Amino acid sequence: MSRSIDYGNLMHRAMRGLIQEVLADVAENGLPGSHHFFITFDTRHEDARLADWLKDRYPSEMTVVLQHWFDALEVDDEGFAITLNFGDSPERLRIPFDAILTFVDPSVEFGLRFETQDDSAEDDEIDEADPARPLREEKPAPTDEPGGESPAHDAEVVQLDKFRK
Concatenated DSSP letters for 120-161? Predict the structure, then answer.
């Protein structure tokens, strides 16, 4: 019987653990300095909880911004719950870590992207480790919050073959 190390799942679990640790610190101490987050998640995930009108408006994925105003951030092993303001209407969301597609902190040019099996096949670049699964660049949606700006830098896919001898 052949056994192999599933690096992909191990890496995703570690990255989600990092997000959990960062959000737990923010829940306890608030956002430090100019840090803020763009978090894109799958609204179809079975454990995601959001108002029906938000599900109607964002039927597949949604990007939330944690920056100027948020309330009651609670983090556990499975995900986080938070109250956000949507046009002067506070709404409670529950976002499982498994539903997160991207996590970006543009203040320090940090970002994580989780590959999914249903990524669009119309993208041009191909993952050489799995040619059947295309790579795609993620760009956080602009924030609706006052004074918020879109990140100044887009993500760039780098081919590691350029560095091999």
Answer: -TT-S-B-TTSTTSB-----PPPP-STT----SS------GG
d(CA 100, CA 162): 30
Nearest to 138 by CA among 111, 158, 116: 111
If you search the block for the tokens 């100044």, which residue do you land on? 152
| Residue burial 30-50, b: 16+ Cβ < 10 Å; e: rest | ebeeebbbbbbbbbebeebeb
Q: How far is CA 8 from the centre of its chain?
A: 17
pLDDT per position as a tens digit, 3-51: 899 888 899 999 999 999 999 999 999 999 899 999 999 999 999 999 9
Name residue 116's amino acid: T
Handedness of CA 9, 82, 94, 148 (dihedral sign): negative
> What predicted TM-score, i.e. pTM, was given to this entire model?
0.68
